[in-house]
Design a protein that fits this description.
about 35% strand; disordered C terminus; alpha+beta; nine-stranded mixed beta sheet; six-stranded antiparallel beta sheet; globular; single chain
Length: about 500
């Protein structure tokens, strides 16, 4: 993987080339290198398997140039990039592409300029994650698989069902998922910030899905972190525990319920509905359900939501944005009132993320969150939250969450797929059958009908998300739930 010194040198050399062009008014050069390595988890008790599959990896590097050109018709702004070449020749080709792609932008003011804010994060990555080899990655994979297998073996519930080791294997114990390490390096230099600034980040994630196949039971687990020495078997243990707890899942009829949304559903709803609605582009295009509500209540007074890209130890933290500016905190909702939105360099949220990770050299800066934190006033423990709910549902994992009728309407739909339970008399009473209900409601219900929030938050990532959500569990009244017909049950 290219070093930060190589990236910094390439950015300054490319900027010097651009500065010699008579028609260039201002420019910025962004150089990055990304590496993702993962190992797949694949254990099946009743079918021959490897348990942990061989490591796989992807790596990319290159540079991008965004430049403002003076033309007889007025200034034009263009972007061009070149992969796998950090030489002056690569910069020349990127500049040609930027010139060819240049267009007039009547709303353009300038490329980013230095601000008074000071950088707070430097040398915060874990060198061990940066240097981890294939053997170390496979060892991390076995840590997750081993945690799940120990949990299955120690379960009295499974022992009762299986009666002996052979019966345990015949239950169809399954574990799938992955352990992934993402490594990012970048450098940026511009007309207003000619000395290259660099950043280096690393993170590790584990996602696991466990099943007791003969009982139609499924559970999931996940962990996120920034340090190898903090990596545990948590994801495997959690997935196996949830699969065991899901045995004997029950169905519930359509209706309106009080729902405790677990951390993954909270993160999924924020990622797919709330965060896109809190970007400047959504307000400019009138496509947000919060249109015209700046400074007004959009949620329960219990709810506060903000993005903080400079929080030490948080997984989405960066030293600088992909525009060369220090990261910081952007308040979105404070005690229920909409107070801000995510924007570009004016609000420290200009990033060049790919879907699910990496800082991409071949794209101009977009608007993205980093660490999204949901906090609740008078937060309580989960047991107390369940007691207050009394009767309802605990929804632990949802899938296919998306807006319907356009983002501005705020309507959404999702399927409840795992880790969910029926709440009776203030406690978890029975597992909820997977894929048996959908939630069809409006995001206003989720935000305004909050009756309680837990005090413990956990870094949570959903599929292809740019941001990490530090999510609590949230109790919401009046949630519309629709039963999904069971095909095999209908045949019976």
């Amino acid at each position: 993987m290219r070093t930060v010194d190589e990236l910094a040198r390439a950015s300054e050399e490319a900027l010097a080339l651009v500065a010699r062009q008579l028609d260039v008014r201002e420019a910025e050069v962004f150089v990055s290198a990304n590496s993702a390595v993962l190992t797949r988890l694949n254990y099946t008790s009743h079918i021959p398997c490897n348990g942990v599959e061989e490591p796989k990896s992807t790596e990319s590097y290159g540079l991008g140039i965004q430049a403002v050109f003076d033309t007889p018709e007025g200034p034009r702004i263009g972007f061009g990039s070149e992969p796998s070449d950090l030489s002056v020749g690569g910069a020349e080709r990127a500049l040609v592409k930027a010139r060819r792609a240049a267009v007039a932008d009547l709303e353009f003011v300038s490329l980013p300029s230095p601000t008074r804010a000071a950088r707070t994060l430097a040398d915060y990555h874990d060198p061990r994650l940066m240097a981890l080899d294939d053997a170390g990655l496979v060892e991390a994979g076995w840590k997750i698989t081993g945690g799940a297998l120990r949990t299955f073996s120690a379960s009295s519930r499974l022992a009762e069902l299986a009666q002996d080791d052979e019966g345990l294997r015949r239950l169809g114990l399954i574990l799938g998922g992955d352990v992934t390490i993402l490594r990012e390096r970048m450098a940026i230099a511009s007309t207003t910030m000619p000395r290259a600034q660099t950043d280096e980040t690393s993170l590790i994630t584990a996602f696991a899905t466990a099943m007791v196949e003969t009982r139609g039971a499924k559970g999931s687990g996940a962990s996120t972190g920034t340090r190898l020495d903090h990596f545990t078997d948590e994801a495997g243990v959690e997935a196996a525990q949830n699969a065991i707890a899901a045995i004997g899942g029950e169905r519930v009829p359509s209706g309106t319920y009080t729902v405790v949304f677990g951390r993954q559903p909270v993160a999924d709803l924020l990622n797919n509905i709330v965060i896109p609605a809190c970007t400047a582009s959504s307000f400019y295009s009138s496509s947000t359900p919060f249109l015209g509500k700046l400074g007004r209540a959009v949620a329960s007074p219990r709810v506060s939501l903000y993005d903080d890209g400079a929080r030490p130890g948080f997984m989405g933290s960066k030293g600088i944005t992909c525009e060369g500016l220090p990261t910081g905190r952007t308040a979105l909702i404070t005690h229920g009132r909409l107070v801000g939105c995510l924007s570009n360099w004016y609000e420290r949220n200009g990033f060049r993320f790919g879907s699910g990770g990496g800082r991409q050299f071949d794209t101009a800066p977009g608007v993205a969150a980093s660490n999204v934190v949901l906090e609740g006033a008078e937060a309580v423990a989960l047991d107390e939250l369940l007691r207050r709910v009394g009767n309802g549902l605990y929804v632990g994992r949802i899938w296919y969450t998306y807006p319907i009728n356009g983002l501005r309407a705020g309507d959404f739909t999702c399927t409840v797929v795992a880790d969910s339970y029926i709440i009776r008399d203030g406690r978890i009473a029975a597992p909820l059958k997977a894929n048996a209900i959908r939630i069809n409601d409006n995001i206003a219900t989720f935000l305004n009908n909050v009756t309680g929030i837990t005090k413990d938050v956990k870094g949570t990532i959903v599929w292809a998300a740019d941001e990490v959500v530090y999510a609590p569990e949230v109790a919401v009244t009046g949630v519309r739930v629709d039963e999904i017909a069971g095909f095999m049950e209908e045949l019976d």
